[in-house]
Amino acid sequence: MTVHVLIVDDQPTVRSGLRSLLASRPDWRISGEAADGLEAIEKAKALHPDLILMDVAMPRMNGLEATRVLRKEVPEAKVVIVSQNDPALVSIQAREAGASGHVAKHELFGTLLPVLDRLVHPLEAESPPSSREDVPASSSIPDWLTGSGALGRLIGEYDWSKTPLGPIENWPQSLKTAINLMLNSQHPMWIGWGPQATFLYNEAYVQVLGYAKHPWALGRPASEVWSEIWDICGPLADKVFRFGEPSFVDEVRLFMNRGDFFEETYYSFSYSPIRDESGRVGGLFCPSTEVTPKVINARRLRTLSELSASALIQKTVEAACISAVATIAKNPDDIPFAVLYVVDAENERAELQQVCGIPEEATDLTPRSIDLSRDSKQEFLWPLADVVNTSHSQLVPIAQAEGFPLGPAEQRLSQAIVLPLTLRGENRAFGVLIAGVNPTRRLDAEYVTFFDLLVNQVAAAIQNARASEEEKRRLDALAELDRAKTAFFSNVSHEFRTPLTLMLGPVEELLARSHTDLPPAAKRQLELVNRNGTRLLRLVNTLLDFSRIEAGRMQATYQPTDLSTLTAELASVFRSATEKAGLQLELDCPPLSDPVFVDRTMWEKIVLNLVSNAFKFTFEGTIAVSLHKVGDDVELRVCDTGVGIPKQELPRVFERFHRIENIRSRTHEGSGIGLALVHELVKLHGGSIRAESKLGKGTTFIVTVPLGSDHLPADRVSAARTMPSSAIGAAAFVDEALRWLPDSASQDSADELPPSHESIPTPGLYGDLGRGQRPSILVADDNADMRQYLVRMLSER
């Protein structure tokens, strides 16, 4: 009885392989073929086949839906699902669709024919073994091939008399043993016997041959079976036959013709000699392992890893595009060419950024700018507008286009994929990556996933670069603002300094001869003006110093100095203030063996600011100033037993204008720039400063300055000073410190109270007080001069 079979699969190579496989059944006939579910239904109605081999994943209608229709329309046909999915899943899908059986594609050659036999001859397939014992075996299959599966049967039925091997019954035992060993192995193997290496293989090797070469390859010369790769395999086979030497190759690249295209594959295999009964080499034995997924995945992973690493480095969009395409260009096997476009800020045009793999002269393939508007009349090969607007990738056939490079194995490219560069949550792409598809690899799910990951990495690199550019613009704006602020401070400082100097000069002259010309009250007022004018001048000079440092115009004059003596003298001027505050001032500045190169004016500011700061925050205990040689440096320490600095504030103590809130001090006045200035002045000496503190225990500031002068600008060592000094002397620091002490102001204020009154009258402020009663006013301010001024003003009422 003739069995009519309809083959349904969208891949021509699969249909060809199934035809070859079914050809081993002489009473079976291929009645037709279909490439999708709808075509299968039409042909099944017209041809009424007995069996339908149905693929699952097909265009227009998948095989499962088609099977459900066929069960109603052509119920007499038995449908067998042929799928590359997991066998357990295929079993469930086939049963739910009403199919009569199922076969996994990777087991096709070992299981399809038995499955079809059971469907065509159910009684024969279901009969117990004992019922078949009396049926004589086919005389064409030798006993030594019994139980060797479908390939054993093919070998046994093959007419070997037409090959160099001759009739099968005349084969030597060495060949039979090797074939039996091969057929009973689940590892892909083949044997080449005789001078032409006549080809024999096992069922596992069918997957290596592919549908196009099985069973055609059986009995043919190996050089003909693998003609496309024999330039690699041939010399290895010759070495076996001529010298009896085995060989092994690992992960060798082979472009195999296993269907309708040359396929890039990677194999590890060995050729071993098979000796015949005379001891000579009769053939070769080749077990092989395909490692294509391993090699290709590793290659793609290298590209993605390099893109990921460079995505965090590039700081401009231009650099990110150059780096990304340069990385892509290193993998021409998976990406034969790449074209990168970025959409402009107005979302109107796509601007070309980088190209690799396409010659520069092929400008029609890579236009510099593409109009993305829907009414644009520009015509290009690439559907950029659709991809940008929809954020969906598109495949573009390019087999007929000129100018593209050849792919691996000199194969012409046939496809390119246009991929959108998108942000998460955005519906519109900000760019497009056009990538060539390797013509020697199928664009399967893994390949598409690679392209998705690739474009995501490129998008991330460009977005990171855009963020860096935005951050740079922000920092540049801040820097410009800072420069403007510095220039403003410099100008204002100069403008303030001149009138302050002109005001303080006459005041100082009046004070110098006030013991003869001025009454005591006028003298005290002039001293008030002088003190606060000097304090304002010190603040102005500090701002001026900062502006000079930032503008690079701060010129130091480094002179050899007896630093121990200078430091001790500067610190000792605070002794009167510390004694009045009930503090101990300890000095430990032993002589140094060599002078130290410092700018004396700057060193004065460093010491005075640090000691003044210690006095401001210390209410009991000690302020200790020490200077010692430590290695190749000299180290200044200013320690106090004051209130200390909170741990979280320590990193910021040297920041300009930073003040620590809610901490006890002798005064809350101050600009927050004293320590910042000290930090900058120490840096100008090539030194460093750090702070150590425990809250409630005290603080230590440690200044380290290198000895010698090699670290200093040679032109400023012992040079003459070229700009006026901004130092105002130690007296101003001490005088201001004394004004922080409550008693100093109290005594001055008491001297100015009216002699006949214990309190200050303020008429009209308390109208409900009886006659003779006088209100009392408490004056509270941390500035002694302000307290004195208020007392004097109110006492006149």
Enumerate the spans where pLDDT stays under 50 for 5 or more consecutive residues: 123-139, 721-727, 744-767
Report strand order across the widest sheet: 13-12-11-16-15-14
Strand content: 15-25%
Number of helices: 24
Helix content: 40-55%
Going by helix content, strand content and strand pairing, the class is alpha+beta
What is the terminal separation in angstroms? 135 Å
* Record field, number of beta strands: 23
The CATH C-level name of the domain at 559-734 is Alpha Beta
Shape: elongated
Instruction: Note the quaternary state here.
Output: single chain
At the third CATH level, what is the topology name of the domain at 559-734? Heat Shock Protein 90
Query: Radius of gyration from the CA trace?
Result: 48 Å
CATH homology group of the domain at 559-734? Histidine kinase-like ATPase, C-terminal domain
Largest sheet: 6 strands, antiparallel
**CATH architecture label of the domain at 559-734:** 2-Layer Sandwich
